[in-house]
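Subject: for your reference before the review

Hello V.,

The reviewers asked for a structural picture of the protein, and I figured it would be easier to keep everything in one thread rather than splitting it across files. Below is the amino acid sequence we used in the manuscript, unchanged from the supplementary table.
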Amino acid sequence: MNTSIQPYLFFNGRCEEALRFYQEALDAKVEMMMRFGESPEPPPPGAVPDNYDDKIMHATFHIGDNTLLASDGCGPESKFSGFSLSITAADEAQATRMFNALAEGGTVSLPLTKTFFSPCFGMLTDKFGLGWMVGMHPG
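And here is what came back from the structure prediction:
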């Protein structure tokens, strides 16, 4: 059995916006997207807000060879905490492009810089509150 871990990200009603952002910033590819209103089985009464028919119940998207899962969740109570996604760029130009795109509307905690472990590394929180570490392998 081949075991894999796939992050499942909840965007508090902003999932479709986040997917468009990652498509632009990271060349993400959306494989599948289902709205709550398209579900073959409606959620239990009170499980999601009444206005969530057009919100994303489940989406699968890819960044490079990596699969991530996403949803609007069941309301505004979830937030990203205690982790960051680490993305490795092929070269400094790609690292800079991805970092700057992810930083748009977000907060940079460590600008891209040379470190003892990477020729180009930086950390930020994007406009959706998701933490990112952008870097390169030593070359």
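For the response letter, the relevant points are probably these. The chain has a mean pLDDT of 94. The first strand starts at residue 8 and ends at 10.

Happy to draft the paragraph if you're swamped.

O.
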